[in-house]
Amino acid sequence: MAGFSPWASSGLLGGAGRRITIAASASAALWLAVLWASMGVAPPALAPPLTAASAINAPPEPAPVKPVPPPLRLVAAAGASAPGGGSYSRFGLEMKTIATPTNAQGDVAFFAKLMRGTAEEGLFLLHDGRAAVIASIGGAVPGGGTISGFTERPTPALNASGKVAFAVTVEGGRASDAVLTWSAGKLTTIAQSGTRAPGVSSATFFDFAPPALNDVGDVAFLATLRHGRDTLDGIYLAAKGQLTKVAAAGDPAPGGGSFSALAVPVLNVGGTIAFAAVVEGGPIQGGIFAAGKNNALRQVVGAGNAAPGGGVFTRISEHVGIDDSGRVAFGAFLGQGGPRAGVFTVADGTITPVALLGNAAPGGGTFAAFGDAPSMAPDGRLAFIAAIDGGSGTTGVYAGGPDGLVRVAGPGDAVAGGRRIGDFPLNASVAAGPRGWLAFQTTLRDGEDQAEAIVQFAPPER
């Protein structure tokens, strides 16, 4: 499928890929018209004169119906002016799309490459319809040095208060890499390279993957640790001023064996962390694991476990989602019967299919492949991108919530301002936010031309 790459092609548990990072929506317009034609027919008789009594008892005039704008809104587009100078060029890196988190207020945090500006790259926050700079190359880092880049996967994290967490590379300072948070214009350092990594003897932080952030301001992140001449993965939680190890390569894995590689974690408001990992020397080769406030690890689902509807899980997506109840969302390949792939949730040991390969897709067609991995909002709503066979389009953005699974966007759908969604980029991803907000990277079509853009789905008022 041109322009579309399923997450399974580079899953942590099925291939050599290590860190691969899936927001979105539908559009509608309301058109009202009243047609009168004479065609030579005599006009209808006039109504009798309106008396005072009939005026009192007459029904009220209907209120004028206001046009309903499309629920898809433009966040940023290539070529548009960027805050801080220059204009947006791209919103991804080297064929990688970068997730664009959104919160219940409709804020969106996003990465962009810039042209004709003083900085080459930056992170931005859209709030109340206006974008502002969070950080850009050349900006100062707390403790010394300046930002030289936003890592190979510059995905920001965003919480309900508008706080943003992200990883950077640094030059001219004591550290070469750091995890930072931004809030109300202030940057704070959470962790930095060269400092001691708690919980692993004689280890120091070396570099960082994109962090996770919950609504109370806790930060979880995956780091590469330097241990003598060796390096290993470690997952950490920064909460209430304390930095605590959650898991590291070499640690015992629940159920047997030990962790050999870890993926980026997700974090909910209660402090529960979930992550995918590869396991050596155990009954399973890998799976999804979770740790609560007491850091007690448990296996959520493992490769080789039975899948609902038949078959077993053979490969599990590297990226997972979690909501504030602890429910986890993931994508997987299946074998030994049943559908070949699907999107699932798991809660208290019960696995529930959300969408399966070959099943009917909302809006028409059948699911032919699934995108980067599902995204899950704190309130349990989830979203994913899928390729479609036999529908009105080849790709769609889908969301699951109280109304079940629905299609929210796809090629050809109208975006406020007159343009329409074009092709989705390779490895397209979507970010699910509370109350039904979604944001995703796509292209916008204006005649024959297409330009990269970030689009947001605004949920209808209930």
Concise synopsis of the structure shown:
The protein is built from one helix and 36 strands. With 462 residues, it is mostly beta strands.
Structure explained in plain terms:
With 462 residues, the protein is mostly beta strands. The protein has a single domain (7-23, 68-457), classed as Peptidase/esterase 'gauge' domain (Methylamine Dehydrogenase, Chain H), CATH 2.130.10.150. The chain is 1% helix and 44% strand. The protein has one helix and 36 strands. It has one helix at 52-57, and strands spanning 72-77, 87-90, 92-93, 96-97, 108-115, 121-127, 130-136, 146-149, 157-158, 164-171, 177-183, 186-192, 203-208, 212-213, 219-227, 230-239, 242-248, 258-262, 266-267, 273-280, 286-291, 297-302, 312-316, 321-322, 328-335, 341-347, 350-356, 366-370, 375-376, 382-389, 395-401, 404-409, 420-421, 430-432, 438-446, 449-457. The strands form eight sheets. Strands 1, 33, 34, 35 and 36 form a five-stranded antiparallel sheet that branches. Strands 8, 9, 10, 11 and 12 form a five-stranded antiparallel sheet that branches. A hairpin with a 5-residue loop joins strand 5 (108-115) and strand 6 (121-127). The longest helix has 6 residues, at 52-57. The protein is globular. Residues 1-58 have low confidence and may be disordered.
